[in-house]
């Protein structure tokens, strides 16, 4: 007989869901009946996709069976959530029906919506358009086949997982092109993005701009992608007319990129295009009562940015990419959110209070080339928050080889052997 009620239901079997389940089991005073709802056969270590797209990491090493990641003692409901009714503490799934809960944890991640950029879905079928988010192995093929011209790296106007990922792909791609001096000479490496600065933390921004200038990379900020023509190989952007177009570019004084601008529309021809697809929250969140109702995070799950608890339904908690909080969407952020959420959830179960707070910590390991990485750590206020131990032995405002080793070997080991086991 199938069971349809659980003390704790966790939606999502990715980083946040598995970490939460494992830590709940470790820290609860008594055994909890926990169910995880997720349809995936594979659990993916997505941070390594950047390296897969640069030919320096195997895609297979990023994948493990989801069944082996589900903590022992947790029920795995292998299905998709179709709707959420917080007033009745119930969830509907696609094939297995309705489930009810006493406490709910939202950790579903975000989904990709290619329709938000006109022509993107068709463009992704092209041999010169790629995305580490969707198929990092294709990215590596596109990079190897590139023969020169405009190598355009870009991103949408929506929030995205790991906001630094598009520029990581750019640094690695440009480093690969430099192996052939003639190819690099005949290439314009362009990063067009909607933001106002390359990075929001001053110490790390300074270093990244040094890299951009020393390697003659073309930056185009306040560029809001809205259309791609896969036949003509042109990306179309809008920009705010109150800013002179010339002020939106760096290292393109002679218009080497041959960008065309008219009435607030910019056209950039590409010979290779790498992009992050638009990210949106799952519809079961955006269409429910627990969604943020207005503003830039409309549709994302409403939780207190310090406690990870929903203010309207105190038995609902959430963490990760689908939350409507001003934190970066990274695994590092989830690592710091999880113990806070777990303590507040257990406090509610155990009828006590918790004073734990999440301060917005995140880190963005920006790979700046083969063998170098800059570990950018920061909080809600965009203040540098580097690990005190690492800061004693390394200048964390500089990209370095030891950080590359951390990215390629250290962080994956920590993920599979510590984070997934609820040990950190």
Q: Radius of gyration, Cα only, in angstroms?
A: 22 Å
The shape, in one word, is globular
Looking at CATH, which topology of the largest domain would you report? FAD/NAD(P)-binding domain
**How many H/I helical runs?**
12
The structural domain count equals 2
Q: How many strand segments?
A: 23
Query: What is the mean pLDDT?
Result: 96
Beta fraction: 15-25%
How many strands, which pairing sense, and closed or not: the largest β-sheet? 7 strands, mixed
Instruction: Tell me the span between the first and last alpha carbons.
Output: 36 Å
Looking at the overall shape, the CATH architecture of the largest domain is 3-Layer(bba) Sandwich
